[in-house]
Amino acid sequence: MTYEADAYGIYAEPAGLDAGYEPVLHRLAGILSKATGVDLYERHSDVWGGVYYRGEEEGEAGDDISFMLTVNFTPAEDDWLEPDYKEYAVLIKLFGESLKRVAECRQAIAEASGLGAVLLRRTKGRENQRGEVLFSLKDEPGGGSR
Description:
Number of domains: 1
Number of strands: 9
Helix content: 10-25%
Number of helices: 2
Distance between the termini: 27 Å
Order of helices and strands: EHEEEEEEHEE
Strand content: 35-45%
CATH superfamily: Sirohaem synthase, central domain
Strand order of the largest sheet: 2-3-4-7-1-8-9
CATH topology: Double Stranded RNA Binding Domain
Shape: globular
CATH class: Alpha Beta
Structural class: alpha+beta
CATH architecture: 2-Layer Sandwich
Mean pLDDT: 87
């Protein structure tokens, strides 16, 4: 099964985070859900920085698509999920097996008013294999950069 995966970053003003990340994530989840048509549900995990959002859409013949909206820095782990992109406080992870639906979601993310997502990395691969980096905003080991 072939898949494509994108990582997006969203810059959040530090002043806007005074009340914490939860209100920001909640607002962005609503924008992302409305734009893509995929419902995102609030979840909690220390590994993903506390509150995060996840949404899945089951397609025909395993053509599934999934989203994760999370903070970049995880206090419980004292670590960054995307250490090369610390300037982006919030991350969107898009994963899909239906290339048509992935393309539709990419377009929706790009056009979503109020989201401000920047493509950080795009990969393509096959199940149980490391993906090939097709695009990366910054140089990455294994190739791929703009």
